[in-house]
Write a structure and sequence with these properties.
single chain; mainly beta; 5-stranded antiparallel sheet; 12 strands; about 5% helix; binds dTDP-4-keto-6-deoxyglucose
Amino acid sequence: MKNNLLSFSVIGDERGNLVALEELKNVPFPIKRIYYLYDLQRNFPRGFHAHKELQQVLICIKGSCNVLLDNGQVKQSYHLNQPHITLFIDRMIWREMHDFSNDCVLIVIASDYYDEDDYIRNYCDFIKMRD
Ligand code: T46
């Protein structure tokens, strides 16, 4: 599996840091939706699905978590703990989010509006569709 980490430029000075997200520049798709996850529980992993078409960029803006990506053949785990190191998740990639720190805040940039029909929530269906 290719490396899915994207490193965004940090504009920093004595006042602090700023990171800009721009569609089709550092974000590799047109941006249709932004959502965020917070008050996450270490013992309650999330995800466990793939998307037929949706592409996303995950940004752990605070705290840390682990994200497992699986293309049906190769699994790769990523530790996200820096706001400028982000994770691109392409279409047809199974994802699981684990081990949230107490202060974890995840922002997700998405290429389309929410559509439950785009989700593949059964792993066997995902593997069949990848074949
Ligand atoms: C993903 C990972 C990283 C909405 O109504 N609108 C939305 O935009 C989203 C994202 C979710 N929902 C509803 C659907 C469920 O009833 O919120 C509920 C929780 O969603 P879900 O269980 O899918 O949450 P996660 O954290 O497992 O997955 C989410 C995204 O759904 C998914 O696309 O890739 O974050």
